Amino acid sequence: IRDRAEGYVAGALYRMGKYEKALNYMVRSQDIGFIAAALHNSGRDADDLSVLEFIAEHCPDNPNVPEFLQKKFHGAEDHHDGIEEYVRPCLKAAESPDCKSPAVWYYTAAYIQDLLGQTRDAYVNVKKAGASEGIAFVNESVKVLRIYLEAKMLRYDGSDDARFLSNLRWMDKMLCGNITTEVREKTAEIWRL
Questions:
Q1: 3-state secondary structure string, the chain?
Q2: What is the pLDDT of residue 108?
Q3: Which band of pLDDT confidence, cut at 50, 70 and 90, is reported for residue 58?
Q4: Smallest Cα–Cα separation from 38: which of 49, 28, 51, 48?
Q5: Mean pLDDT of 35-52
Q6: Residue 125 near residue 109, CB atoms below 8 Å
């Protein structure tokens, strides 16, 4: 009840033009779009980096963070100009004593670092993500990125066959378990099958 009430208070303060006060309640309301609008209307920068820095500092456990980060970095493999600036707030959030679920933050930092060619730093952070608390979706993403980074970094000499095979079996199981009708249709549309 309290969470809902704080959301209503934040909305009322926002509509009254008291954006700074509204921000205090918005942090707890968990609505990232609302936070961005209040930052903008209070005269602060409200670009994605500024919003991310605000969230990292004030509400790193916001349950909408994984979706926000996924939307922000979807397609970053092709266009990653300026994304290096996002590593610092991600690591700041992950290392904050207020952050109870740092895995998503470490994962995001690792993902960005890999895109920037900083494979060793990415591997360090993906290992931290794996050792941290996170939701199931993030934990699976961490494992996939760790497998990828290990394959990219480690020299193959045949001694790791059992580990690689185990990882490949796990990935195959995950892929097969997530093939839905929607995925089939989108894949067919993309490849015009």
A1: CHHHHHHHHHHHHHHCCCHHHHHHHHHHHCCHHHHHHHHHHCCCCCCHHHHHHHHHHHCCCCCCHHHHHHHHHCCCCCCCCCHHHHHHHHHHHHCCCCCCCCHHHHHHHHHHHHHCCCHHHHHHHHHHHHCCCCCHHHHHHHHHHHHHHHHHHCCCCCCCHHHHHHHHHHHHHHHHHCCCHHHHHHHHHHHCC
A2: 94
A3: confident
A4: 51
A5: 82
A6: yes
* Total-model pTM: 0.80
**Contact of 100 with 61, CB cutoff 8 Å:** yes
Tokens for 36? 């961005």
Nearest to 50 by CA among 76, 77, 23: 23
Q: How far apart are CA 132 and CA 126, in angstroms?
A: 10
Structural tokens at position 16: 């009254």
Q: What is the mean pLDDT of the chain?
A: 84
